[in-house]
Amino acid sequence: MKFEEFSHIIISVVTVSIAFAIAWTGLTEFTPEFASVFVLILVTVGSGFIFHELAHKYVAIRYGAYAEYRSWTLGLVLAIGMAILFGFVFAAPGAVYIYGRNLTKEQNGRIAIAGPATNAVLAIGFIALAFFEPSLAGLAKTGASVNAFLGLFNLIPIFPLDGSKVLAWSRGAWMTAVAVLGGVMFLAPSALG
Asked: Of 74, 103, 132, at which residue does a domain stop?
């Protein structure tokens, strides 16, 4: 991974984590409460975001394409601005851009589903964490819910979201992914108390 791409990922993750921390706490100053929420979000949202995007990248590379993450400055500014003004986050921090090879509909679908599938694995991993280390139940609940939501949101079948490419490739794969992530999203909070 090139330094420029790495810096785009770090800037995106930190900015999105700040935006979520502002939205969740209502604070725009660095206080102990803000710092603890920021760290929680960095671990849960940050890991979900990074691994989601890297999954797209490495599946595309596997199919012989060139893929690189680029942040979207306007999306990052909107994330912070909406968190401050409205208390919620519209996060469109950037995307993996794929070049250099004409991919089939199936390959595009598989590249697209890699991100939400990664979020499903992370969500299930956070649930397992709560069972192995009950003292981390709060982190696990947040991680499971956030990753399930992130994966499910990306499966909305509207371009440019992943769901449009997955559905164009395979209705069955799309329905299965929606069912798994929807189940995790709605069952995780009650399972983790």
From this structure: 103
